[in-house]
Structures are given as C-alpha cells and as structure tokens.
C-alpha cells in the first residue's frame, strides 16, 4: 500500500496517513464481515460518461465497480463519441460481455459531460444513482457503505463521502476529510463532489444536468438538489470511498478559467433562487474558490464589553469602535464588575436592547485584522444565521470551530484544515466574542455560564431548536479577533461536553482538525 500527502509535507504526516490507511483497511473488512444482504437493500446505479479515456485508467475505473463487495449494482457506461482508434469501444464491449450488470450506450457524437451524464441518468434503473468519472476509482466497499447509509435513512435524497487522490505513481494522496452537511461551505466550493449519490426520486425531480454549465455541471446539479432537501435528507459518510485521479490538464490541476466562471454563475443563480442578495466573488487567498459579498449593513449595533480589568475594557472598546464601519450606529456599553450571576446580567442587558444585532465581547479581546465587525454584521443580516462568531486567537492558539462530521463512526473522525479558510455552519460558538440576532430570541443564561452557544441551546423566546432544523450558527475566518491578555478567562472557552472540536490537533492527518461524529 502506497500513500503520500504532498511533497512538501513532513515525513511524520506521511507516516500518519499510512497508519490511517492500515486502520481503514481493517475497519472496512470488519464492516464487510458483518454485512448480510437483505431483500430490501437498494439497487445502486453507477453512471460513468466515457470519452477517449486511456485504456489502463478505464479498466481500473470499471474494475473498481465490478469488484465491489456489495453485489446489487448496475454500471451504466455512456461512450460519448470516443474516436474509433481509441480502443474504448472494444474495451466497453468486453466488459459488458463479461458481466451482465455492466451496460453500455454508444452515442454517435459527443454530447459533452452533462449531455452524456443525462443519458446515463435516464438509463439508470437503480433506487440510487452514483456518479463516477471515467478515470477515477471507487473504494472496494464504497457501495456497501452507501447501502448501510440508506438502511439508516431510507428517505435520504443525497449521500456523499470523503475522497482522496491518485497520483501519477498510483499513490493515494491529499485526503479530503469533509464535514457533515454544511451549506455555508458549499457556497465556497463543491465540497460534496466525489462521491455523490442521488436518490432516483431526486434525479427525476431535477430533470438532468445543464449542458450550458459543462465544467461546473456537477456544482449546478448539487446546488439545485439541496434546494429541495431537508437537513436530515443529506447524509455524509466519513470514509475515503472515492479515489480521484490527478491528471495533467484536468480540472483537478489547472485550466480552471471556464469552470470557475461557470461555477460562480451557477452559484449566483442558486443565491437568487434562495432570495439572497449575496454575490459570489473570488476568495482573497484561493481565487478558484468563492467568498460572498454582502450589502453594506446599516442600522444600530448594540455592543456589550464585559470584564473586571479597566485597561482590558478600554482596549477592547477602542478596538470595536475603530473597526465599526460607517453606516452602523454603534451603541457600546460596558459591564465593569463581575456580578454574582454574569449570565443573568448579560441576559438582562440583552433584553433591554432593541431586537437586532447584539455584539458581546469579553474584555481583552481585540480585532486582529480590519473589517471584522463588518464581516460579522453583514453575514448576520445577509444569511439565516442566528449568531456569528469570528476566528478567535488566544495566547495558546486558535480556537478551532466545532464542526460536525456526519454519521456515527467507530473511529475518531477528522475534518481537513483546508475548510478553515471558508465560512462554516458550526454546532457551537464561543460566547467570549459573538454576534447575536435577538430578533430570534435571547439565548438562555446557561450558554453564558458554560461559555458557548450551541445549536441545542434553549432560547427564552423566538426560535427553538429542533432536530430537523436547528438554528444556524455561522463561523467566519473573515473576522479575526485575538487576545494575548492572560486575564481572558480560558475557562469559558473550554471544550463543551457534547462537542469534540475546539482546538487544533497538531498530530492529525494532513493538518486536520478533530471533528464531531454525531
């Protein structure tokens, strides 16, 4: 078994990934050993558009489906006008003759990736449809895990998995450990991507991929898909079940201009369909990804700075005042002494303020980069979030956001540190620096006692959490705050009992952050 991270990564990270792959092999074998096929288990269709694929890669792709440990599948191969001398047609016929579950359609001319995929979608007879690129591979137990996910939630509309890449030498590299369903992250890039599996009912409702979106047709497809699905209908399997081949000249390496342009166009259409005024723009640090621009907010911003040290209070107040943009009327108040019940005092103050954006900041925390207040307020007003929190850096390091991973797992799951470049929907925010929208109600005193607001926090009025539609808590790296003061109470930032992600874990795979598996 070969594995690598990136050529610039430290050897210990490569060793960590190797150990992960060894544990993965044992874990998958255990799942397979315990699996018994049931009459009600779904037929899974795998749709693969093919066009002039190098034969060795195409053989690997097809073999990765034929050799699946889960037997109830069909493979729909759509030859999209491959040249006669490519050998693709002969190989497809050989594979079809060898296994009746392999079905081939030959298109007389090239329809493009969306058009060829649509032929496969219309041919698919399965209860769920998986999309596989013609030079990629599925993990041997990928479809078995899909079956188990369907068993756990038969009403699922969309299932996605983690993925990694296949290098030119055949090594597995660059694991992408994804979070559970996270709409905010999807707005930055198509993080669901590989492997994505759609229910037949959803495929019928969507009506096919848009040929005019070729290059970003899958992004447009998934954006349209999630518009009609509830949170409980989108499942994440935190396993590396898709191996994406890195090919010179492919979208995975470069030549992204047209794909990026079309990707922003389909994202803009998605936001318009949702009634959002946000606009997609190039991410400042990673231009092939997106960030959202919001209308400049106006109105009043209430702010409470609380603490016992006068110098820290003055420092924080000065920082907030200087960072508040023109157009926002800042009403700043301070709480100088720690009362018998800090949480009660904060809740009392919140209830005295007009309903709207309320910023709470612990004395000693300051804005680390200009625009933090604007970033938080614009997101609170431009999204459905009930609270927004910044990237918060303390003397001991950055507090990592609490992001859910997905389905239950018998191992400690991870989330790639890569996602910390983007806005994220999280399951907890530190109350040491938090912006609340009190139009949705005031959080209970308990969250201020514990030092964190969670999606299960009981609100005193307004929105109440539910399993199917919990309040949206948004974390954004576009707002960066920090404190080097030893007087900032780290106790209120301690790890919540039901949330397993707060701090970076330097020893994790590829610089990942530990995630919650719930």
TrEMBL record:
It comes from the Bacteria. Gene3D superfamilies: Spore Coat Polysaccharide Biosynthesis Protein SpsA, Chain A (3.90.550.10). Residues 45-161 form the Glycosyltransferase 2-like domain. Pfam families: Glycos_transf_2. PANTHER family: GLYCOSYLTRANSFERASE, GLYCOSYLTRANSFERASE 2-LIKE DOMAIN-CONTAINING PROTEIN. This is Glycosyltransferase 2-like domain-containing protein. It comes from Kineobactrum sediminis.
């Amino acid at each position: 078994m070969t594995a690598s991270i990136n050529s610039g990564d430290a050897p210990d990270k490569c060793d960590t990934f190797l150990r992960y792959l060894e544990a993965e092999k044992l874990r998958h074998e255990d799942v397979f050993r315990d699996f018994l096929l049931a009459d009600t288990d779904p037929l899974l269709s795998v749709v693969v558009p093919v066009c002039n694929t190098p034969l060795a890669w195409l053989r690997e792709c097809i073999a990765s489906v034929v050799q699946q440990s889960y037997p109830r599948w069909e493979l729909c191969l759509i030859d999209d006008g491959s040249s006669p001398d490519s050998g693709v047609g002969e190989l497809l016929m050989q594979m079809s003759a060898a296994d009746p579950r392999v079905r081939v359609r030959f298109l007389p001319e090239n329809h493009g990736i969306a058009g060829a995929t649509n032929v496969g979608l219309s041919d698919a007879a399965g209860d769920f449809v998986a999309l596989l690129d013609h030079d990629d591979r599925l993990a041997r137990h990928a479809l078995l895990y899909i079956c188990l996910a369907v068993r756990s939630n038969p009403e699922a509309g969309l299932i996605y998995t983690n993925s990694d890449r296949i290098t030119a030498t055949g090594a597995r590299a660059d694991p992408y450990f994804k979070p559970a369903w996270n709409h905010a992250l999807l707005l930055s890039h198509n993080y669901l991507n590989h492997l994505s599996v759609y229910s037949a009912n959803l495929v019928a409702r969507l009506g096919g991929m848009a040929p005019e979106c070729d290059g970003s047709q899958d992004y447009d497809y998934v954006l349209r898909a999630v518009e009609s699905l509830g949170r409980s209908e989108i499942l994440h399997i935190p396993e590396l079940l898709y191996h994406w081949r890195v090919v010179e000249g492919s979208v995975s390496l470069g030549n992204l201009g047209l794909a990026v342009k079309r990707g922003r166009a389909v994202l803009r259409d998605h936001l318009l369909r949702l009634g959002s005024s946000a606009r997609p723009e190039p991410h400042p640090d990673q231009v092939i990804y997106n960030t959202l621009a919001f209308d400049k907010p106006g109105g009043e911003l209430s702010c409470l700075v609380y603490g016992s040290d006068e110098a820290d209070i003055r420092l924080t107040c000065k920082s907030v005042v200087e960072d508040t943009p023109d157009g926002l009327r800042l009403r700043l108040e301070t709480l100088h002494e720690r009362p018998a019940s800090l949480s009660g005092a904060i809740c009392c103050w919140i209830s005295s303020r007009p309903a709207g954006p309320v910023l709470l900041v612990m004395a000693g925390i300051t804005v680390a980069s200009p625009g933090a207040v604007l970033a938080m307020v614009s997101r609170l007003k431009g999204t459905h979030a009930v609270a927004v929190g910044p990237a918060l850096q303390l003397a001991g390091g950055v507090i990592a956001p609490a992001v859910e991973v997905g389905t239950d797992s018998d191992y400690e799951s991870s989330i790639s540190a890569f996602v910390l470049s983007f806005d994220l929907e999280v399951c907890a925010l530190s109350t040491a620096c938090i912006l609340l929208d009190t139009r949705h109600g005031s959080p209970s005193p308990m969250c201020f006692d514990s030092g964190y607001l969670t999606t299960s926090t009981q609100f005193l009025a307004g929105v109440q959490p539910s399993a199917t539609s919990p309040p949206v808590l948004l974390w954004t790296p576009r707002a960066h705050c920090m404190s080097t003061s030893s007087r900032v109470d780290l106790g209120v930032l301690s790890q919540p009992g039901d949330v397993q992600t707060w701090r970076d874990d330097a020893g994790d795979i590829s610089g990942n952050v530990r995630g919650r598996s719930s």
